[in-house]
Amino acid sequence: MADVEVNWPWQYSFPPFFTLQPHPETRSKQVSAWKTLILEYCKKAKIYTLDVREASQWPLFNNAAINRKLDSSVIISILSELAKNGNAAALDKGRNRWDIYWHTLEEWASIIYSYISDSGLQNTVLTFYEISNGADTESQEFAGMPIEVLIKVLRLLENDQKCELILSNDMQGVKFF
Amino acid sequence: MRRGVGLGAIQKHKLEQAKYTNIGNEIQENQIEQMTKQLEVFRVHLEDFATKHKNEIKKNGEFRRQFQDMCATIGVDPLSSGKGFWSVLGIGDYYYELAIQIVEVCLATNTKNGGLISLDELRSKLIKARGQSRLHQEISKDDLLRAAQKLKIFGSGFSVVSVGNGQYMVHSVPGELSMDHGAILQLLSTKNQSFISVKSLCSQLSWKEDRAKQALEQMLDQGLSWVDLQDDDAVYYFPSLFTIASSTDE
């Protein structure tokens, strides 16, 4: 995991932040601070998916300076909270692997679609790779988005009849309308 | 001489008594009149003084404190007088305004500190919030205390706790802080420390374990502290004191 430049909030240096709080009100403040921090961290580091078993070792959940770490079970419960707002989704039954959406899928859909219309790319066929890794989209926020996530976003647009996915053996792409 | 024992003697005695009382009352009335006059003169002077030095009073914290003391000695409270002369002066307004800003800062920092804030932090936040334009109006801790104390009228939701060494904390959520809670805050604030365990509390204040545990748990239940379970013992942290210790960000 490369070092990520994060403006750590004061809580990050506050040891009990890494222990799930028993008092309901305090806990809700704590969880909401964690939610914000996780999304910000993933956004800065361009993390779209994570595995809790590995992520629990990241600096995000592990402040070596004060020797505190967030327990995996707590991480999972916070990710589940994020999922309620569409900011995360569990990928397996064990809830170890997660998609993280620092933009919800709906937000991504509108970001990508605005890019397409601004660039006049309607009625053109683009490969998934061109969208997420192409030279033209390098400066876009969605650059580097994994294909699996991209497909989920495009499915939403497809539901709105704004594009059509082409998933044949020799071509993995999308045509926007 | 033999004291009179007859009816006449008793009556005479009564009459004398009455005369004495009358004279006494007269003297008292005179004195009161005198004093009232003096006070009235003093008041007029004080008002003159206040009008003349209005700006000084608003701007200079030390000056303001002395003026307040002077007013207190003669029973004038420029803070509570919204009508008449004192309202023209606007000193009460100054403190009302300050009180409102105190409430604002307390609300704004509530998520972080659970409704407990040191007067020092409150002051620096408040000065920041008031911004550049008012920089010349320095606010002293004394002003803050006066203003914060005014907020007591809102009931138990607002109180100022002395934590020793001239340090104060403002408590802005309903719920009383007991003597024990105060003692814990005082201990930590004196040591400039934001956390404590049951064991260490017991040894430092010679409390029984039950007492220490109960006090710490109550503060946890009021959202004033957080518990850390990643050490040998549970350690209770106070975010309101945490800032003082590390003076981080925001």
From TrEMBL, chain A:
This is Vacuolar protein-sorting-associated protein 25. GO terms for biological process: macroautophagy; protein transport to vacuole involved in ubiquitin-dependent protein catabolic process via the multivesicular body sorting pathway. One of its GO terms (cellular component) is ESCRT II complex. Keywords: Protein transport, Transport. Pfam families: ESCRT-II. One of its GO terms (molecular function) is structural molecule activity. Belongs to the VPS25 family. It comes from Henosepilachna vigintioctopunctata.
From TrEMBL, chain B:
It comes from Henosepilachna vigintioctopunctata. InterPro entries: ESCRT-2_cplx_Snf8, Snf8/Vps36, WH-like_DNA-bd_sf, WH_DNA-bd_sf. This is Vacuolar-sorting protein SNF8. One of its GO terms (biological process) is protein transport to vacuole involved in ubiquitin-dependent protein catabolic process via the multivesicular body sorting pathway. Keywords: Protein transport, Transport. Gene3D superfamilies: 6.10.140.180, Winged helix-like DNA-binding domain superfamily/Winged helix DNA-binding domain (1.10.10.10). Component of the endosomal sorting complex required for transport II (ESCRT-II), which is required for multivesicular body (MVB) formation and sorting of endosomal cargo proteins into MVBs. Pfam families: EAP30. Component of the endosomal sorting complex required for transport II (ESCRT-II). The keyword Transport applies. One of its GO terms (cellular component) is ESCRT II complex. Belongs to the SNF8 family.
